Amino acid sequence: MKKNLKRFLALLVSFAFVFSLVLNILPQQARAADTIKIVGNWTDAGNWNFDVSTIVLNETSTPGLYYGEYTFQTGGTYEFKAVINGSI
Predict the structure, then answer these.
(1) What pLDDT digit, counting tens, does each position of 4-35 carry?
(2) Which of 40, 50, 47, 53 is nearest to 87 (CA)?
(3) CA distance to 29, 30, 72, 80, per residue, from 24 (Å)
(4) Which of 26, 36, 79, 81 has the most crowded Cβ, counting Cβ within 10 A?
């Protein structure tokens, strides 16, 4: 009985270790100190330059969920991406 308990605990610890490794490999959500901007192919979006973009997303009361509003001019086509701390 003691031997089975030791095996079970060893297996449980092994699973916990592997699970923690997997969590560190998965992409992480943005943190509160992060700056999230929209960059794109028009002037307000910095013409793809993170440092020049004026469209900043703000964190909501739900951690990892950000919000922002922007009014596009009618006509034209727009391409954009959300960028965290200058990295896509």
Answers:
(1) 656 655 555 555 555 554 455 555 555 557 88
(2) 50
(3) 12, 14, 38, 28
(4) 36
